[in-house]
Amino acid sequence: MGNPVWKAFVAEQMEVWLDWFRNNHVDSYIDMVEKFIRLHPYYIPNQNDMETDMGNLIHRLLWNEAFVEKLSDKGLQVWMASPVIDFIEEMSVYQNNYSEIKKLVGLFMRHSLWFERVYIHLRNSIMAERGMV
């Protein structure tokens, strides 16, 4: 059983992601991310990193302030307690219909531990900002 919050997030974001990927070269971005991961296997993001292409891409994929504002406190807690694999599972539902999403799911699966570590750090930062810790 998937995570209902990730499911709603992915469904809501899908149009935005597809539009973005169709106006940007998906393979170039995936190649850039994979090179970054190889060069920075123990990367932990900081606030300055969010201004870079890599930070912008990670933020674009994993966060939407308007979506978060609609969540109840319980919904936000459920979302924050979930692992990245829940996100990947919800995205994978769309991979047969959209080649861009299939490539993205492949990227996340190949580097799931790296994305999990980055997500944990981002999640902890967000929780601290919101007074949830």
Give an overview in words.
The structure is a single chain. The chain is mostly helical. The chain has one domain (4-129). The chain contains 8 helices and no strands. Helix 1 crosses helix 6 (84-92), helix 2 packs parallel to helix 7 and helix 6 runs antiparallel to helix 7 (99-110). The longest helix is centred in the first third of the chain and has 19 residues, at 4-22. The radius of gyration is 14 Å and the shape is globular.
Topology:
Blueprint: H1 4-22, H2 26-39, H3 53-62, H4 65-70, H5 73-81, H6 84-92, H7 99-110, H8 112-129
Give the helix proportion (percent range).
over 70%
> In one word, what is the shape?
globular
pLDDT < 50 runs, ≥5 residues: none
Q: Strand pairing plus helix content: what structural class?
A: mainly alpha
Please give the radius of gyration in angstroms: 14 Å
Helices and strands, in order, run as: HHHHHHHH
Please give the alpha-carbon distance between the first and last residues.
Answer: 27 Å
Mean pLDDT over the residues: 85
Notable traits:
133 residues, mainly alpha, 8 helices, 0% strand, globular
In short:
With 133 residues, the chain is mainly α. It has helices at 4-22, 26-39, 53-62, 65-70, 73-81, 84-92, 99-110, 112-129. The longest helix has 19 residues, at 4-22.
